[in-house]
Write a structure and sequence with these properties.
With 337 residues, this protein is of the alpha/beta class. It contains 13 helices and 9 strands.
């Protein structure tokens, strides 16, 4: 790949819209993946979330298999597996199996957050907090299980040994930047909801990066919210669903995604609330022309190698159109370099 080109990908949460079923939501996720594949997206990743009526990406490895089985070339992975929720041995077995079924197409992104509330995290693993503190050691266990040298060990994930499953370190603060750099792993930052530490984390990662067998030089990825429509006004209308969803997060509501409405003064005032505005700082909303300018400025500021688009929209058709327009923008930006 030309190092001057910026790759573009999708992070999928399988958001359940009001009136939609989980089955239809997951079918729509597959349709989005097929559209992404047709438009030269590099990868589609599935998040891990629990105890939410509005998010269907709970069994991440199952969704990866579903999408990989029904596509042919796009990379499919986790954005990410929340490692303290899981046994590293089981994760290695699951992703090793996927790698045999879909060679050179499976990514394993690892994070340390629970992907849910504290009570649910305790229900998943009563020792979650201890495991979160041991995250570097848990990542090392994953690496060991994938290593061909582990064939001589007492405990093995034989289906994973020697398989081609790249590891990616996920972060929403500066903590994982140090670990990703130390291990020489690609680094993906969740700037679509955690904008505050993006620039410091990227600087730490690049400064401390140590080359590894899997990666010679730093590789940075950033999540961004993308809402593209024919006009700025229509894109802003689509964006109102995300604003309401995040207000629900703050208030404890777990409702399915609301349909878009007019971008009223009340909604504009909600969006300007310091907490919400900071979380959604890297949201690029508008027509193709408007968003292209925003993306070029973001790429100039961050110099990331890959953008991961998150588009939480009520209408599947609107998401498909936005994904197609985003691909057009990225191709134009890359051609202009």
């Amino acid at each position: 790949m030309d190092t001057n080109k910026t790759a573009y990908s999708i992070l999928e949460l399988a958001i359940v819209s009001q009136g939609n079923t989980i089955k239809q939501t997951l079918n729509d996720s597959l349709a989005l993946a097929k559209e992404a594949e047709a438009n030269d997206y590099k990868r589609i990743w599935f998040a891990e979330h629990h105890n939410s009526d509005s998010i269907a990406s709970s069994a991440t490895s199952l969704l990866i298999g579903y999408v990989a089985e029904n596509t042919t070339s796009i990379r499919v992975g986790s954005g990410g597996i929340m490692l303290p929720n899981h046994s590293p041995l089981i994760v290695a077995e699951q992703f090793g199996t996927l790698a045999h079924l879909y060679p050179s197409r499976i990514d394993l992104g690892l994070g340390r957050a629970p992907g849910t509330d504290q009570a649910t995290a305790q229900a998943i693993r009563s020792d979650f907090m201890q495991l979160a503190q041991r995250f570097p050691q848990e990542v090392a266990r994953i690496q060991q299980y994938f290593s061909p040298e582990n064939k001589k060990a007492t405990v093995r994930a034989s289906v994973a040994e020697g398989t081609d499953v790249p590891l990616y370190m996920l972060g929403s603060s500066t903590d994982s930047a140090h670990l990703a750099a130390k291990k020489g792993l690609p680094y993906a930052f969740a700037s679509h909801f955690a904008s505050t530490h993006l620039l410091p984390a990227l600087e730490i990662y690049r400064r401390e990066f140590q080359p590894s067998e899997s990666l010679e030089r730093p590789y940075t990825m950033a999540g961004v919210n993308v809402y593209i429509a024919d006009t700025d006004e229509e894109a802003e209308r689509l964006f109102t669903s995300l604003i309401r969803m995040f207000v629900g997060v703050f208030t404890g509501a777990r409702d399915p995604l609301h349909p878009p409405t007019e971008y009223t003064e009340d909604l504009k005032e909600m969006f300007q609330h310091p907490s919400l505005h900071q979380m959604l700082k890297y949201s690029f909303v508008g027509s193709k022309e408007t968003v292209k300018k925003q993306l070029k400025a973001f790429l100039s500021q961050t110099q990331v190698k890959e953008l991961i688009a998150v588009s939480t929209m009520y209408s599947h058709e609107s998401r498909i159109k936005s994904a197609r327009l985003f691909a057009e923008i990225m191709k134009e930006i890359n051609e202009e370099r």
